[in-house]
Amino acid sequence: xxxxxxxxxxxxxxxxxxxxxxxxxxxxxxxxxxxxxxxxxxxxxxxxxxxxxxxxxxxxxxxxxxxxxxxxxxxxxxxxxxxxxxxxxxxxxxxxxxxxxxxxxxxxxxxxxxxxxxxxxxxxxxxxxx
Length: 130
Fold this sequence. Notes:
Elements: H1 3-25, H2 41-46, H3 50-78, H4 83-105, H5 109-128
Helix pairs in contact: 1-3, 1-4, 3-4, 3-5, 4-5
């Protein structure tokens, strides 16, 4: 499996890890006192504040970013673009997405938006190689 394919797998798990941070941070808090409620997870999410709420938003954005990235990797590989170039862009995407999550959790909105544009740019760059 290519590095780019591993990056696709990592990109699929990154939103799950992101929301896991919010859920895990409240692991010792009882459900009645605002801890994670697996019986009503959407209600629980709506009551979050601060960085936990931003983690939920980052998770949702992570899922939104997946289709363009996955399509870019798959189409570039199908077009027989040099694998090293595809791998490099895929690694860049994962790094940018990790930085995006960090900026989101730290409430650095302008930086987060710039990083987001970088991630979209990397995905679009894969299409330009075709």
